[in-house]
């Protein structure tokens, strides 16, 4: 986009099934403008029926993730200059998820898999116990910390070709959370987590293609976490055999 | 026009509206305290745990955990910060229960907060605190709290109604109790009435009627507008907290108004006017390190002198601290600014005061009960805990403490309740008609009116207020409100129709804007977040009052109620004799 360019050519996905229809809009260009601003302008000034989702505006909630020129991105934090140097934008709902309408994807499958991966804390203590002292430099804690800033935006899930090919695959985000819990000394659910991530939709489906790490807006590396799960589930498997 | 027969009907036992810290905690505690078999439903305007503002908490969570700090000291800071207006019983419970809630967050919910080298929780001091009290997870505390709460709730048998917007509290025909809540299922555009024995409302306030504001985009005062129509009392409605440094990037971008964190000024960040001169020392000897309200007023005064940047604000400058140092110390902020096209580390970034938090809300007791049987309110929708100003770090403590309290209270109260109540058909029809009104008018743009409201509130009910301005605001908001009633929304496809919801958002915002202006006129002194240029003094502390706004028919009324100093009186303290004024090491 040059300074002289006054409008953006924007093509937007429409309808309740993927690929149903595309509409084009000419959107006024501004110096400070994100993809979310472009989508909002279309709804506020050109087509009041355009559906999309956003909340926090600052990359903390992960509600506004969409496909932008074929790449999954947080639209609130994606500057037009970064993705549309020629002033052309194609905006679609997040890949690998059902479409609700236009640009809004149904994130329920993503969160159902989060739960299926046992990706919630399994308490070993209660509110009546003191908070456990934990050395922040401890190696397992450091490993847990690597994935803890995930905001569950599903960018990695949309980027993952394994998810695209296998709808049962739990996906990078849920598995990374499981790995974080496995490294959290306070978590009491080790065996249930290992069972959950070693099933048919589990970590062994990952082909280490690395799209999750490539596209994560927070620079997290779910592929590394999944590799850790593969090692732990294998160890657990052999240990189980020895004990049998 | 839809008749009530076209409303989907659904029954539950405990209904929770909102999935921020208050809503999610209410769900967990209700599940723990209600009898087995109790149906629990959680409804939210967006996605569970994703909309709302708890997730956006940067700073952290205030809790007294020893090392010299005490619940008493936390309480005194909260009362003094609120300029003697808080409901003292609520403030006490907030401070006392925060100690339990932080252990629950760590031990049961699975949050992991930053540690000291010895493994204990790291705590820091925010402005207005006399102890290192704020527990945190870097500067992304809210993400840790909400992500962990969300996964706990998702994994439990709690019924979820996502993208369900509450539009009306429906009482019984004799108005003695709440029967249920009317929603729009946003994905289909259909009405859904959910009856429940108890309802906890935690939609999260959010002063988004200002030109510059920080809350998430879904927050539009729907809860307080519903409460006002249901006849409930709203207190402290003049109390809008402005954060001094919101990003300023023009009217056309949703980035404008979002917070640049407090720590930038604390670390030595400088505020520069349009001529690139520092100005905060003209207003306060602490310069940029003065409290939020003082810095906001300083910036606003400078803006009024037209000493402004290109977009009408001022600049924040960090470069003198060394760009690499700034990048290392504030990586999240630097990256966010860079994504938006600004160089925080080495350049100048335009900032402006931005409406951040709403201290006002529904009058509740310390168990979250309201005057309407069956309705409980917690979090930013509830008034009283913060008085005229909220301390940084007390927001998420408040929502999680009182969300849990609401869950426990509902779980206990529901044992005494019999059958579900029948909704008042007249109120139900009136709420349906109210929501359908725009579909009966010629379609037009909604956004210009939202913009007009935001200008009016910013100019006349903003950082600095006068009787003239507040009175003018009442007329301006009334005109915008009238104009909105003539703006239509096309009715051909109501599924996920954001423009219909923009209209409903603006309807809520107009209603609550009038309540803010009225309460602002009533308070003829300056306390905390409320500053009257024509009444700059704080007034007699012993005669402190809080404002109460009610609505009867279509008319608002305001009165002053005396503050009940139930625990401590102005000029006194509950700290033992000889306690130092502050435990925070001088910087």
Automatic annotation (TrEMBL), chain A:
Belongs to the succinate dehydrogenase/fumarate reductase iron-sulfur protein family. Pathway: Carbohydrate metabolism; tricarboxylic acid cycle; fumarate from succinate (bacterial route): step 1/1. It holds the Pfam family Fer4_17. Part of an enzyme complex containing four subunits: a flavoprotein, an iron-sulfur, cytochrome b-556, and a hydrophobic anchor protein. One of its GO terms (molecular function) is electron transfer activity. It comes from Roseovarius marisflavi. The keyword Metal-binding applies. It comes from the Bacteria. Keywords: 4Fe-4S, Iron, Iron-sulfur, Metal-binding, Oxidoreductase. The keyword Protease does not apply. Its cofactor is [4Fe-4S] cluster; [2Fe-2S] cluster; [3Fe-4S] cluster. Its EC number is 1.3.5.1. PANTHER family: SUCCINATE DEHYDROGENASE [UBIQUINONE] IRON-SULFUR SUBUNIT, MITOCHONDRIAL, SUCCINATE DEHYDROGENASE IRON-SULFUR PROTEIN. This is Succinate dehydrogenase iron-sulfur subunit. Residues 8-97 form the 2Fe-2S ferredoxin-type domain. GO terms for biological process: respiratory electron transport chain; tricarboxylic acid cycle.
Automatic annotation (TrEMBL), chain B:
Gene3D superfamilies: FAD/NAD(P)-binding domain, Fumarate reductase/succinate dehydrogenase flavoprotein-like, C-terminal domain, Succinate dehydrogenase/fumarate reductase flavoprotein, catalytic domain. Residues 450-571 form the Fumarate reductase/succinate dehydrogenase flavoprotein-like C-terminal domain. Residues 13-396 form the FAD-dependent oxidoreductase 2 FAD-binding domain. It holds the Pfam family Succ_DH_flav_C. Signal peptide: none annotated. GO terms for molecular function: oxidoreductase activity. Keywords: FAD, Flavoprotein, Oxidoreductase. InterPro entries: FAD-dep_OxRdtase_2_FAD-bd, FAD/NAD-bd_sf, Fum_R/Succ_DH_flav-like_C_sf, Fum_Rdtase/Succ_DH_flav-like_C, SdhA/FrdA/AprA, Succ_DH/fumarate_Rdtase_cat_sf. It comes from the Bacteria. Its cofactor is FAD. The active site is at residue 292. This is Fumarate reductase flavoprotein subunit.
